[in-house]
Amino acid sequence: MKTIIIGLGNPGKKFENTRHNVGFMAVDKFAEKNNFPDFKLSRLQSNRGSSTKSGQKKSDALVSENGDIILAKPQTFMNNSGLAVKSLIKNLKLKIKNYIIVVHDDIDLPVGKIKIVKDRGSAGHKGVESIIKAVGNENLIRLRIGIRPASAMASAGKAKKIVLKNFSKEEQKIINEVIFKTAEAIDSLLKNGLEKTMNEYNK
Question: Is 20 a catalytic residue?
């Protein structure tokens, strides 16, 4: 049974170290920790959305595969993440449900906190919302990584500005530890299952 682990973020140097990209960072760390091959651009196609010359919208993703585990970083920009996820599942000829773990930033959690949830709504996260619209949230497991600064409230207006900012030096030290911890949590999900992993990491 194949498992797809999706890290969410925005492509390009401009967004590389922003708070919104911790999903990319965590999947990169998991890949490094488990000796995955380099990510390669997978040119996917979807019948939904605006058209290319072939009548389909591109939904590229960076993909690395090791055995039954597929890592993916959608290159559609955050708000269209679902387009890449649905296309990836279609291209791999997998059933939509049962196989997806999504790793993403969460403005509702403070920097340093991670939380694992299943079958939950998007809580306003546009990338997660896009995925739920595309494939549903039944059996969808999510690793939420806190990015909220200690001084900030998570209002909609402030959230848009916060997610595209870099971490402070102090925060970056915490995030580096959290990214490693998230990679370990993914390992635990694959080896020990959801319940045991939630008990260990949702503290």
Answer: yes
